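[step 3/7] fold_predict: job queued, chain A
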Amino acid sequence: MIRFSDRQVVVTREFGVRVIDMSATGCLVESRRSIEVGTIGTLRVRLGSEECYDDVEVVRCEAVEDSPAIYHVGVRLLRTKPRHPGSIRHAVAHRATSLAPSELARLM
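[step 4/7] structure written:
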């Protein structure tokens, strides 16, 4: 007989978010669901034609004023793996080196 108390279980759930802001250390996304602070997950985004992803931790979740069904969620990009092509951290750093200063201010 298997005792489940001896096994670690991971539950995953996938849902869409809209990226509002992105930096080399984190993102602000908009969600139709509240996400508990401390939640660990993977954020996947499309930047141009490139799909990027990184592990993230939710550090803030607040209902948008006058829109109780929409939440602004702050996530911190975790360094669980080295920065690599295909990671959000790599894409932000790569784009930052090729942008004009006015564009860089919007990205960072």
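[step 5/7] annotate
The helical segments are 88-98, 101-107.
Residues 88-98 form the longest helix (11 residues).
exit 0
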